[in-house]
Amino acid sequence: MPAPAAFSYAIIRVVPRVERGELINVGVILYSHPLRFLRARVELDEARLKALAPDISVDTVRAHLDAFCKVCHGDASAGEVARMPISQRFHWLVAPRSTIIQTSPTHAGLCQDAEQMLEHLMDTLVRTPHESNARSM
Fold first, then answer.
1. How far is 93 from 95, CA to CA, in rounded Å?
2. What pLDDT is attached to residue 135?
3. What is the CA radius of gyration of the chain?
4. What pLDDT, on a 0 to 100 scale, did the predictor assign at position 90?
5. Within 10 A of 56 (CB to CB), how many other CB atoms are there?
6. How many Å separate Cα 126 from the centre of its chain?
7. Which of 9, 39, 99, 117 is the most exposed place for a label (fewest CB within 10 A)?
């Protein structure tokens, strides 16, 4: 079994009205230099978003989240920042900002399987307990 590798992650959040500071956790971005891994996973709960911001355009939020993921995954259609090395993309994506899509402070850990850890973080930090239990059945 390989030795655990260091990783950093941040929670991806939608903050529909920045001035109110209310937010919904919608995803996780995970980076591991030793594993050469950078991925984001996003699951937007539209009902929760609409409960918080009834007049928000879900299509606009989805477009912003899609752009965030394209940069993370190095999709050339996302522009120059998507062409940067993965460490630079991660740091660019988790930089503090006051837009509708924000990330939490970064956290660190150790894992052997980054994809499995990303799923665990989604279950723990994004999905409701009902959603997480349904995935394990």
1. 6
2. 56
3. 15
4. 98
5. 16
6. 9
7. 99
Here the tokens at position 65 are 């989240």
* pLDDT at site 137: 47
136: pLDDT strictly greater than 60: no
Given a contact cutoff of 8 angstroms between Cβ atoms, the answer to whether 35 and 114 are in contact is yes
- List b or e across 2-34, with b for residues whose CB sees 16 or more CB atoms inside 10 angstroms: eeebebbbbbbbbbbeeeeeebbbbbbbbbbee
Question: N- to C-terminal Cα distance for the chain?
Answer: 27
pLDDT at 132 over 80: no
